[in-house]
Amino acid sequence: MPPEPGTSGFADLLRTLRRARGWTQEELAAKARVGVRTLRDLERARARPQRATADLLAVALGLDDPQRTEFTRAARHGAGTDLLVEGRGISLPQPPALIGRDVELTHLEAALRQAALVTLVGVAGVGKTSLALAAAHRVAHRHVGGVAGIVISEVSTEADILAAVATVFGVARVRDLPARLTGRPALLLVDAVDRAAEPTGAALRWLQGHLPALRLLATGRHPTGITGEYVWPVDPLEPPPPGLTDPAEIARYPAARLFLDRLREVGLAEVGASDAMAVAELVRRLGGLPLALELAAARGRVLAVPEILDRYGDRVLDLADPAATSLRAAIAASYRLLEPHERWALRRLAQFRNRWSVELAEPLLAGGPPGLPQDVVVLLDRLTGLGLVSVRGSTAVRFRVLDVVRDFGREEAEREGEAADAAGRHARVIAGYAARTAAELVGPGQQAAIARLGDIAIDIRAALVWAAEYDPDTALRLAAALPRWWRFRGHDRQGREWLRRLLDHPGTAGADPTVRAWARLGLAQLAAEHGEGAAELPELEEALATFVRYGDVAGQLAARTQLCVVLQAAGDPELAREHGLAALALATAPARRRPADGRRPGRRSPPCAGPREPGRGRPAGGPVRRGGGRRPSGAGAVGGVRRPRAPQARPRYGRPRAGPGRPVRRGPGGARRVGRGAAGGTHRGVPGPRGRGPGPGGTAVRGRGAGAGRAARRAGRGRGAGRCGREYG
């Protein structure tokens, strides 16, 4: 923002007096009881000094009468709210060149057509004022009544604000504003509404009630709360993703482009290809926050980019500028706007390293302090509205705490003595989520499950690292759920190292035996991926013994299957065959067969195994099916009673059955091709012409009788004709 006319002299005088006393801006602001941001804007000549502010500064500086006279003469006397300087045709300064804000400007232009009040909300340093100025200039042609702006200060009152509005629109009194703007649309930019929230809200309500043609564009760390307000959270600039090494590709991302642009301003013309990766990593750690990028780029006067990364990469909150506030102070200003329970929630959410979902946030925030909403969505909406949390996605919504906010939240958790409890809860939440998702790594939902675990890969590693040191049981439970995911990602060696480390840890000796058994099984599975399965054979045998001892059938099947693989690779096919037969016997045991009611324990029944529809199967009070759950073979069936069936009944699978008005197709030798009562039975699946050739005795293969089906199955020539043509044992 360019300096305002007439303010440069006061800015120079204020800076000279402060430095003569050896004070920092923070020290003078504290002595004068004004905001640090207000003092910074005055020394940069970005705002006109208020009468009350000038008096407070004069007292704090200890000026004698001649000095005070000169000081107050340099200060501009006026209302308690600063006026934005007149620019080209509108009463606003020209905005700085924006980078990566084209989409936001387009949306704001549309929002200002519909909403009477649009508020840009975000943390300090995210670029709210610059974006608002650019949006105001873009829509100026639609507001023939004028475009003007004011800046709210900590001491502004409702009367001060309304008087300032009257001044910028060229009238002497606020009651003259309706006549000034009658029938002509106008736009007012109100910057920093959070500095004096209640007076500003009252003034804006008065303006809305008396000036229906006036559009309001506000900026602040939180919304005004006025009815009909359209809130637009301003997010940081997008940083480059990990893995990029090409300088041209890195520079395409707005955050990197802004950082490089500011480096050129301080004299560093070009960044070499060798520093490109350092630029990308630094920009990511700064979270794309414009203020942080500018403060880091200012260090380019004396440090190379890799040196900036090494020095500030892990403590970005320490970035500051002599003429500006520190990044930590900027984030603290937004943090202080939260209620106590909201601060607690933010400290908990700061444990997440990347994007997270509501499903993960709910258990992390469970058991919070009084005042915490029962519905976590309400809290997330509040934090998102303040710009402390960003949200992305339309179908699968994901949230993310801004990087600098996360660092600040973790610092606050340390200060409050909550760090260990928050990290432990985070590790347990991630372990539980991984265990639930790992169960879906087999079947049609496999790819989706892999993607969900990939989204929290950074949090999985962070939870493992913390829990391995402070909560080994949780670490083992987490690692035992991940072998299949590690195999899919090609991390079999890293996963094996984690499991070995945790199994050997003294703290896991008393863990749940079945958890240790699954960890041992995963150890052998991962070792087999790189040809070292035989080395973990003792662990695999111990896992099997544990599963047998505790009756874990799924574990026994998995362990015996893995033993087959390992023993075959080790050159012991006979023992491998024994485990294979044992697994087969376990899988086909009567307890695991489908009972007569058609349902298999522990498995969702097939579509045809549920209750029959009316007219399909045995009617109420009719004869009961016999034959161990198989279909009767028809009139010639032995030991079975043929079930009555409705005319024109259609099968659930295959072709329509024969019935009145439907010809019966016959195969070679006159055997029925469609139907299921043919003497001798038919069998689906016996090879023949076009896959439907005759079965034994010249019968066709399309029917569902029992006799030849069982015979063919025994002969190894196809599947038995069980219910729906297939065996579910």
Mean pLDDT: 78
pLDDT under 50 segments (min length 5)? 1-7, 85-89, 598-729
| Count of DSSP strands | 8
The number of distinct helices, counting runs of at least 4 residues, comes to 31
Can you describe this structure?
- This protein is mainly alpha-helical and 729 residues long.
- It is 47% helix and 5% strand.
- The chain contains 31 helices and eight strands.
- The protein has helices at 8-20, 25-32, 36-43, 51-61, 65-74, 102-114, 128-138, 158-168, 177-181, 197-210, 247-251, 254-265, 276-285, 290-298, 305-312, 327-335, 340-349, 358-364, 376-385, 403-415, 419-438, 446-455, 457-470, 472-480, 483-489, 492-503, 513-529, 537-550, 553-569, 573-587, 707-714, and strands at 82-83, 117-121, 147-151, 186-191, 214-220, 229-233, 389-392, 398-401.
- A six-stranded mixed beta sheet has the order 1-3-4-5-2-6, with helices on both faces. Strands 7-8 form a two-stranded antiparallel sheet.
- Helix 10 (197-210) links the parallel strand 4 and strand 5 (214-220).
- Helix 25 (483-489) packs antiparallel against helix 26 (492-503).
- It is elongated, with a radius of gyration of 37 Å.
- The N and C termini lie far apart (77 Å).
- The relative contact order is 0.04.
- Mean pLDDT is 78; it is low at 1-7, 85-89 and 598-729.
List the helices and strands and how they pair.
Blueprint lengths: L7 H13 L4 H8 L3 H8 L7 H11 L3 H10 L7 E2 L18 H13 L2 E5 L6 H11 L8 E5 L6 H11 L8 H5 L4 E6 L5 H14 L3 E7 L8 E5 L13 H5 L2 H12 L10 H10 L4 H9 L6 H8 L14 H9 L4 H10 L8 H7 L11 H10 L3 E4 L5 E4 L1 H13 L3 H20 L7 H10 L1 H14 L1 H9 L2 H7 L2 H12 L9 H17 L7 H14 L2 H17 L3 H15 L119 H8 L15
Helix pairs in contact: 2-3, 2-4, 6-7, 8-10, 12-13, 12-14, 13-15, 17-20, 21-23, 21-24, 23-24, 24-26, 24-27, 25-26, 25-27, 26-27, 27-28, 27-29, 28-29, 29-30
